[in-house]
Here is the input.
Amino acid sequence: MSTAGKKDVKRRELVKQYVHIPIKPANKASDFAAQNLPMVAMFLKNKSLAWATLFLAIQSWLADPLIRDPSDDSQPAVFKIIFALIAIATSSMDLFMPNMGPGAKAPAPASIVDTAVEAVTTAVETATGAATN
Here is the structure.
């Protein structure tokens, strides 16, 4: 069976050219997380969640294309990083300005030291008194 005797059934006018249409990137979930989790971390004052939002924002920045689609309405990745840094600062605010509660006075540093010294001397006296008896 030779192919020389067969007739070519392909016609040029019936061939349709292939045009590649790329799919849209599916980063909606990461955009949602990078935009809303910093607010959750601020309201809950959750430091670990705030740090997680920073890492998600950095990941979003690294995955951000160099040439953006004009129809892309998500906020730029740099803003997500700034928002995550604000969430970290807000959730760590109690380290710099502790909340003492209503009517509570902050203890003086000297009284804390005096209390610690008194506790240590009492413990040493008890330990040495028990060892000598």
